[in-house]
């Protein structure tokens, strides 16, 4: 579906040479979308609901029975301070993305936090590797300077 939309858009918008307006709206969309994502993940860690505390069933399980992502969930559930620290970074980054003037700072903080999340997701085989990688790439786009395009293209 994305390919069809891109082909139609490319055919209809062939003559446009100045894409600053499109970039501005895309950046607004990314800021709000990423702020929402970072808030949801961040608050789930600050108010410890994403990773449950270690219960008797987890503590009675041998290490050999746990999956790689099970190890991560056990580690995060045990280390409430680390979980809250990561969640606070996500919340701060999301808050800074809500305002145009603090977008770059929010994107840089978000990149630092999401780099850790992406590394954990790949290292422990968590099923949302592609999602977290896309969020990291989108934050990188927001952190990059806005290209200056002259009003006349040659």
Number of domains: 1
The helicity comes to 55-70%
Low-confidence stretches: none
Structural class: mainly alpha
Order of helices and strands: HHHHHHH
Q: How many beta-strand runs?
A: 0
Task: Give a short account of the largest sheet.
Answer: none
**CA-to-CA gap between the ends?**
33 Å
Mean pLDDT: 88
Radius of gyration: 20 Å
Strand content: under 5%
Number of helices: 7
Shape: elongated
Question: TL;DR of this structure?
Answer:
It is built from 7 helices and no strands.
Structural overview:
With about 150 residues, the protein is mainly alpha-helical. The mean pLDDT is about 90. The longest helix is centred in the first third of the chain and has 27 residues, at about 20-45. About 70% of the residues lie in helices and about 0% in strands. It contains seven helices and no strands.
Record the SSE blueprint.
Elements: H1 2-12, H2 20-46, H3 56-59, H4 68-78, H5 80-97, H6 103-123, H7 129-143
Task: List the keywords.
single chain; mainly alpha
């Amino acid at each position: 579906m994305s390919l069809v939309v891109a082909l139609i858009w490319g055919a209809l918008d062939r003559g446009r040479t100045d894409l600053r307006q499109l970039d501005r709206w895309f950046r607004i969309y990314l800021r709000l979308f990423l702020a929402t994502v970072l808030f949801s993940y961040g608050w789930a860690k600050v108010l410890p609901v994403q990773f449950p505390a270690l219960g008797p069933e987890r503590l009675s399980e041998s290490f050999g029975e746990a999956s790689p992502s099970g190890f991560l969930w056990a580690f995060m559930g045990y280390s409430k301070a680390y979980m809250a620290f990561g969640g606070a970074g996500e919340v701060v980054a999301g808050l800074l993305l809500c305002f145009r003037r603090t977008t770059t700072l929010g994107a840089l903080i978000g990149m630092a936090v999401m780099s850790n999340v992406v590394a954990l997701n790949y290292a422990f085989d968590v099923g949302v590797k592609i999602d977290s990688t896309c969020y990291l790439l989108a934050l990188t786009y927001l952190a990059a300077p806005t290209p200056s395009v002259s009003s006349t293209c040659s």
